[in-house]
Amino acid sequence: MKTIIHRAAERGHADHGWLNAHHSFSFASWYDPNKTNFGVLRVLNDDIVAKGMGFGKHPHENMEIITLVQHGILRHEDSMGHTSQILPGEVQVMSAGTGIYHSEFNDSKTEELRLFQIWVFPNIQNVNPRYDQKSYASEAAHNKWQTIIAPIDQPEAKAIGIYQQAWFSQTELDQDQTIDYTSRNMLNGAYVFVIEGSIKIGEVILSKRDAMGISEYESFTIEALESAKVLVMDIPMEL
Prior knowledge:
Layout: E1 2-6, E2 12-15, E3 19-23, E4 41-49, E5 54-60, E6 64-71, E7 74-78, E8 83-86, E9 90-95, E10 100-106, E11 113-120, E12 130-135, E13 146-151, E14 160-162, E15 167-173, E16 178-182, E17 188-196, E18 199-201, E19 204-206, E20 211-215, E21 219-224, E22 228-236
Parallel strand pairs: 13-14
Antiparallel strand pairs: 1-20, 2-3, 3-4, 4-11, 5-10, 6-9, 6-11, 7-8, 7-10, 9-12, 13-15, 15-22, 16-21, 17-20, 17-22, 18-19, 18-21
Protein backbone atom coordinates (compact mmCIF):
# COMPACT_ATOMS: atom_id res chain seq x y z
CA MET A 1 0.00 0.00 0.00
CA LYS A 2 1.25 3.47 -0.92
CA THR A 3 -0.17 6.63 0.67
CA ILE A 4 0.07 10.38 0.43
CA ILE A 5 -1.39 12.83 2.92
CA HIS A 6 -3.02 16.13 1.95
CA ARG A 7 -3.76 18.26 5.01
CA ALA A 8 -6.62 20.75 4.92
CA ALA A 9 -4.33 23.61 5.98
CA GLU A 10 -2.00 22.93 3.03
CA ARG A 11 -4.67 23.43 0.37
CA GLY A 12 -4.65 26.40 -1.96
CA HIS A 13 -6.84 29.29 -0.83
CA ALA A 14 -8.43 32.19 -2.64
CA ASP A 15 -10.79 34.73 -1.04
CA HIS A 16 -12.53 36.85 -3.66
CA GLY A 17 -15.03 38.34 -1.24
CA TRP A 18 -18.05 36.75 -2.86
CA LEU A 19 -16.18 33.41 -3.16
CA ASN A 20 -14.03 31.77 -0.50
CA ALA A 21 -12.40 28.74 -2.12
CA HIS A 22 -9.99 26.03 -1.04
CA HIS A 23 -8.27 23.90 -3.68
CA SER A 24 -7.00 20.38 -3.02
CA PHE A 25 -5.27 20.44 -6.42
CA SER A 26 -3.68 23.19 -8.48
CA PHE A 27 -6.39 25.51 -9.73
CA ALA A 28 -6.63 29.00 -11.23
CA SER A 29 -3.78 31.14 -9.84
CA TRP A 30 -2.69 28.56 -7.23
CA TYR A 31 -0.13 26.04 -8.45
CA ASP A 32 1.67 23.30 -6.55
CA PRO A 33 3.68 20.95 -8.79
CA ASN A 34 3.12 18.16 -6.26
CA LYS A 35 -0.65 18.61 -6.33
CA THR A 36 -1.76 18.73 -9.94
CA ASN A 37 -3.93 15.60 -9.77
CA PHE A 38 -4.38 12.21 -8.15
CA GLY A 39 -4.76 9.83 -11.07
CA VAL A 40 -7.73 11.06 -13.11
CA LEU A 41 -8.94 13.24 -10.22
CA ARG A 42 -8.08 16.75 -11.40
CA VAL A 43 -10.04 19.19 -9.20
CA LEU A 44 -11.52 19.12 -5.71
CA ASN A 45 -12.70 22.59 -4.76
CA ASP A 46 -14.31 23.44 -1.44
CA ASP A 47 -16.32 26.61 -2.17
CA ILE A 48 -18.30 29.06 -0.05
CA VAL A 49 -20.39 31.40 -2.20
CA ALA A 50 -21.89 34.57 -0.72
CA LYS A 51 -25.65 35.11 -0.80
CA GLY A 52 -26.97 35.98 -4.24
CA MET A 53 -23.55 35.60 -5.89
CA GLY A 54 -22.04 33.01 -8.20
CA PHE A 55 -20.26 32.03 -11.38
CA GLY A 56 -21.54 33.56 -14.61
CA LYS A 57 -21.85 31.57 -17.82
CA HIS A 58 -18.56 29.84 -18.63
CA PRO A 59 -17.42 26.90 -20.80
CA HIS A 60 -16.20 23.35 -20.13
CA GLU A 61 -15.27 20.49 -22.41
CA ASN A 62 -14.10 16.88 -22.04
CA MET A 63 -14.43 16.75 -18.28
CA GLU A 64 -16.71 14.92 -15.84
CA ILE A 65 -17.95 17.56 -13.37
CA ILE A 66 -19.48 16.44 -10.07
CA THR A 67 -21.06 18.91 -7.63
CA LEU A 68 -22.10 18.06 -4.07
CA VAL A 69 -24.02 20.77 -2.21
CA GLN A 70 -23.38 20.81 1.54
CA HIS A 71 -25.44 23.85 2.61
CA GLY A 72 -27.76 26.25 0.84
CA ILE A 73 -29.29 26.18 -2.63
CA LEU A 74 -27.36 26.13 -5.92
CA ARG A 75 -29.12 27.48 -9.01
CA HIS A 76 -27.83 25.96 -12.24
CA GLU A 77 -28.46 26.87 -15.89
CA ASP A 78 -26.71 25.43 -18.94
CA SER A 79 -26.57 25.42 -22.72
CA MET A 80 -28.32 22.03 -22.80
CA GLY A 81 -31.47 23.78 -21.56
CA HIS A 82 -31.37 22.65 -17.94
CA THR A 83 -32.48 25.02 -15.20
CA SER A 84 -32.43 23.47 -11.76
CA GLN A 85 -31.83 23.86 -8.05
CA ILE A 86 -29.40 21.56 -6.25
CA LEU A 87 -30.03 21.10 -2.53
CA PRO A 88 -27.98 19.57 0.31
CA GLY A 89 -27.82 15.82 -0.12
CA GLU A 90 -28.12 16.10 -3.89
CA VAL A 91 -25.43 15.28 -6.45
CA GLN A 92 -25.17 16.87 -9.87
CA VAL A 93 -23.12 15.46 -12.74
CA MET A 94 -22.28 17.01 -16.08
CA SER A 95 -20.35 15.25 -18.81
CA ALA A 96 -19.01 18.27 -20.67
CA GLY A 97 -17.91 16.26 -23.72
CA THR A 98 -17.85 18.32 -26.91
CA GLY A 99 -18.57 21.47 -24.92
CA ILE A 100 -21.12 23.16 -22.67
CA TYR A 101 -21.73 26.53 -21.07
CA HIS A 102 -23.24 26.83 -17.63
CA SER A 103 -23.74 29.21 -14.74
CA GLU A 104 -23.91 28.52 -11.00
CA PHE A 105 -25.35 30.90 -8.41
CA ASN A 106 -26.30 30.94 -4.77
CA ASP A 107 -30.07 30.98 -5.00
CA SER A 108 -30.51 32.44 -1.51
CA LYS A 109 -30.46 36.12 -0.57
CA THR A 110 -29.95 35.31 3.10
CA GLU A 111 -27.64 32.26 3.39
CA GLU A 112 -24.24 31.34 2.04
CA LEU A 113 -23.82 28.36 -0.28
CA ARG A 114 -21.29 25.64 0.49
CA LEU A 115 -20.38 23.03 -2.09
CA PHE A 116 -17.70 20.70 -3.38
CA GLN A 117 -16.96 20.67 -7.08
CA ILE A 118 -14.92 17.76 -8.41
CA TRP A 119 -13.48 17.31 -11.90
CA VAL A 120 -12.48 13.92 -13.31
CA PHE A 121 -10.75 13.34 -16.64
CA PRO A 122 -13.04 11.14 -18.81
CA ASN A 123 -11.95 7.95 -20.53
CA ILE A 124 -13.89 8.85 -23.69
CA GLN A 125 -13.41 12.17 -25.47
CA ASN A 126 -15.97 14.33 -27.27
CA VAL A 127 -19.14 12.62 -26.09
CA ASN A 128 -22.47 14.37 -26.40
CA PRO A 129 -22.86 16.55 -23.28
CA ARG A 130 -25.18 15.11 -20.65
CA TYR A 131 -26.68 16.08 -17.29
CA ASP A 132 -27.96 14.16 -14.29
CA GLN A 133 -29.00 15.01 -10.73
CA LYS A 134 -30.12 12.80 -7.85
CA SER A 135 -30.90 13.09 -4.15
CA TYR A 136 -29.30 10.77 -1.59
CA ALA A 137 -30.79 10.17 1.86
CA SER A 138 -28.22 10.38 4.63
CA GLU A 139 -29.87 7.44 6.40
CA ALA A 140 -28.73 5.17 3.57
CA ALA A 141 -25.09 6.09 4.34
CA HIS A 142 -25.31 5.57 8.10
CA ASN A 143 -22.35 3.34 9.02
CA LYS A 144 -22.30 1.85 5.52
CA TRP A 145 -21.21 2.80 2.02
CA GLN A 146 -23.57 4.65 -0.29
CA THR A 147 -22.36 4.68 -3.90
CA ILE A 148 -23.24 7.93 -5.67
CA ILE A 149 -21.04 7.71 -8.80
CA ALA A 150 -20.26 4.68 -10.98
CA PRO A 151 -18.99 4.03 -14.53
CA ILE A 152 -21.69 4.74 -17.07
CA ASP A 153 -21.04 1.34 -18.68
CA GLN A 154 -21.35 -0.47 -15.31
CA PRO A 155 -24.54 1.06 -13.89
CA GLU A 156 -25.40 0.60 -10.23
CA ALA A 157 -28.73 1.20 -8.57
CA LYS A 158 -29.16 4.88 -7.64
CA ALA A 159 -25.60 5.85 -8.70
CA ILE A 160 -25.03 8.46 -11.42
CA GLY A 161 -22.92 7.29 -14.34
CA ILE A 162 -19.80 9.05 -15.60
CA TYR A 163 -17.42 8.37 -18.47
CA GLN A 164 -14.64 6.89 -16.35
CA GLN A 165 -13.92 3.67 -14.45
CA ALA A 166 -14.56 5.48 -11.18
CA TRP A 167 -16.78 4.99 -8.16
CA PHE A 168 -17.59 7.61 -5.51
CA SER A 169 -18.94 6.33 -2.20
CA GLN A 170 -19.84 8.17 0.97
CA THR A 171 -20.55 7.17 4.55
CA GLU A 172 -21.64 8.84 7.78
CA LEU A 173 -20.00 7.08 10.72
CA ASP A 174 -20.87 7.13 14.39
CA GLN A 175 -18.02 7.65 16.83
CA ASP A 176 -15.91 4.50 17.32
CA GLN A 177 -17.52 2.82 14.32
CA THR A 178 -15.22 1.07 11.82
CA ILE A 179 -15.83 0.34 8.17
CA ASP A 180 -13.79 -1.48 5.54
CA TYR A 181 -13.32 -0.22 2.00
CA THR A 182 -12.38 -2.69 -0.77
CA SER A 183 -10.98 -1.58 -4.12
CA ARG A 184 -13.42 -1.68 -7.01
CA ASN A 185 -10.60 -2.06 -9.55
CA MET A 186 -7.04 -3.12 -8.72
CA LEU A 187 -5.67 -0.52 -11.17
CA ASN A 188 -7.42 2.23 -9.23
CA GLY A 189 -6.38 4.30 -6.26
CA ALA A 190 -8.62 5.71 -3.54
CA TYR A 191 -8.73 9.36 -2.53
CA VAL A 192 -10.25 9.52 0.95
CA PHE A 193 -11.64 12.96 1.83
CA VAL A 194 -12.95 13.78 5.31
CA ILE A 195 -15.95 16.07 4.92
CA GLU A 196 -16.67 16.28 8.65
CA GLY A 197 -15.27 14.79 11.83
CA SER A 198 -12.09 12.81 12.43
CA ILE A 199 -11.00 9.34 11.32
CA LYS A 200 -8.02 7.01 11.51
CA ILE A 201 -6.58 4.86 8.72
CA GLY A 202 -3.76 2.68 9.95
CA GLU A 203 -1.74 4.98 12.19
CA VAL A 204 -2.77 8.17 10.36
CA ILE A 205 -5.35 10.51 11.86
CA LEU A 206 -7.32 12.63 9.39
CA SER A 207 -9.47 15.56 10.47
CA LYS A 208 -12.05 17.72 8.71
CA ARG A 209 -11.06 18.41 5.07
CA ASP A 210 -7.89 16.31 5.31
CA ALA A 211 -7.36 13.70 2.61
CA MET A 212 -5.33 10.57 2.00
CA GLY A 213 -4.48 9.13 -1.41
CA ILE A 214 -4.08 5.35 -1.31
CA SER A 215 -2.78 3.17 -4.14
CA GLU A 216 -1.61 -0.42 -4.60
CA TYR A 217 -4.08 -1.77 -2.05
CA GLU A 218 -6.85 -4.31 -1.78
CA SER A 219 -8.69 -2.87 1.19
CA PHE A 220 -8.29 -0.60 4.19
CA THR A 221 -10.19 0.14 7.40
CA ILE A 222 -11.54 3.50 8.52
CA GLU A 223 -12.12 4.11 12.23
CA ALA A 224 -14.24 7.09 13.28
CA LEU A 225 -12.58 8.89 16.19
CA GLU A 226 -15.70 11.05 16.34
CA SER A 227 -18.82 11.23 14.22
CA ALA A 228 -17.56 11.61 10.67
CA LYS A 229 -18.68 12.03 7.07
CA VAL A 230 -16.27 10.57 4.52
CA LEU A 231 -16.11 10.52 0.72
CA VAL A 232 -13.98 7.91 -1.08
CA MET A 233 -13.18 8.45 -4.76
CA ASP A 234 -12.06 5.15 -6.32
CA ILE A 235 -10.35 6.25 -9.53
CA PRO A 236 -7.87 5.10 -12.21
CA MET A 237 -4.30 6.13 -11.49
CA GLU A 238 -3.28 6.25 -15.16
CA LEU A 239 -4.29 9.35 -17.11
